[in-house]
From TrEMBL:
The keyword Zinc-finger applies. PANTHER family: N4BP1-RELATED, RIBONUCLEASE ZC3H12D-RELATED. GO terms for cellular component: cytoplasmic ribonucleoprotein granule; nucleus. The gene is Zc3h12d. Keywords: Endonuclease, Hydrolase, Magnesium, Metal-binding, Nuclease, Zinc, Zinc-finger. This is ZC12D ribonuclease. The keyword Nuclease applies. One of its GO terms (molecular function) is hydrolase activity. It comes from Polioptila caerulea (Blue-grey gnatcatcher). CDD domains: PIN_Zc3h12-like (cd18729). Residues 250-275 form the C3H1-type domain. It comes from the Eukaryota. Its cofactor is Mg(2+).
Length: 303
């Protein structure tokens, strides 16, 4: 009795159902008879019951709003969608001077760039600015909206590169090396209009990285605008450039420029919509096939 109980318990049946069947059939009943009786009673193994239960998880469309607290959109790998985006490292001096027309260090330009990447969902954003930019502005180095630097520093977005004064002279560390080094270690994107040629010659690994991960930009009426094709017309799109897992475009068949006048037949590498359900033969092969048919008919008539 105990061995049969253990056997059917391993199959997933409940002990109460097994006891009822054994009382009805007797302890000497065969295992096949007990199994048939369990099936007739409608008893199911627990594994099947759990599979039959409807899933309580709800799928939420990406970008849609949900009133249910605690539910977030998860990607295919079970992580947040922001994890598929590359880290962003911004050359703060380059962006600020570009927004100020190379005359004023405009901190508002840095804020515009940071807001643009935040709206796309990037969570890792770092801006590098020399420490001496915290000093009061002077005539030879004017600064606009300097309070923005303090706000970004509180948000752990802005990082000051070291600088100090030695005998009245300012000693400034090379902030470009910080920018390239952090972006290279994080496998991110450098936002700057500088080409960093000196750093490319310094390190061959940095040379490849700067060539492939440099995102240039423009300011159009206080609007931060990176190009849609950061690496040229034949390169990746901006969304693929900023994501860790780029989405490859679907291959579209290029239609034949000659259309129905094409004489290449099955040797033509282009797409012919009118030949979908036809055997793609060359014109010479079609003529040979047509000439063979009447010859065969004439021989049949002579016979």
């Amino acid at each position: 009795h105990q061995s049969k109980m253990d056997f059917f318990c391993k199959l997933g049946y409940g002990k109460q159902d097994i006891c009822k069947v054994l009382e009805n059939l007797g302890q000497e009943a065969l295992e096949d008879d007990v199994l048939k009786e369990l099936i007739r009673m409608g008893s199911k193994p627990q594994a099947l019951e759990t599979q039959a239960q409807p899933c309580q998880l709800k799928l939420i469309a990406r970008g849609s709003c949900s009133t249910t607290p605690g539910l977030e959109w998860l990607g295919e790998d079970g992580s947040d969608s922001s994890s598929s985006l590359r880290p962003i490292v911004i050359d703060g001096s380059n962006v600020a001077m570009s927004h100020g027309n190379k005359e004023v260090f405009s901190c508002w330009g840095i804020q515009l760039a940071v807001d643009w990447f935040r709206e796309r969902g990037h969570t890792y954003i770092k801006v590098f600015v020399p420490l001496w930019r915290k000093e009061p502005p002077r005539q030879d180095s004017p600064i606009a909206d300097q309070h923005i630097l303090e706000e970004l520093e509180k948000q752990s977005v802005l990082v000051y590169t070291p600088s100090r004064k030695v005998k009245g002279k300012r000693v400034v560390c090379y902030d470009d090396r910080y920018i390239v080094k952090v972006a290279y270690e994080k496998d991110g994107v450098i936002v700057s209009n500088d080409h960093y040629r000196d750093l490319q010659n310094e390190n061959p690994e940095w040379k490849w990285f700067i060539e492939q991960r440099l995102l240039m930009y423009s300011f159009v009426s206080n609007r931060f605008m990176p190009p849609d094709d950061p690496l040229g017309r034949h390169g990746p799109t901006l969304s693929n450039f900023l994501s860790k897992k780029p989405v490859l475009p679907e291959k579209k068949c290029q239609p034949c420029p000659y259309g129905k006048k094409c004489t290449y037949g099955n040797k033509c590498k282009f797409y012919h919509p009118e030949r979908q359900h036809q055997a793609q033969l060359s014109v010479a092969d079609e003529l040979r096939a047509k000439t063979k048919v009447p010859l065969a008919l004439g021989k049949a008539e002579e016979r």
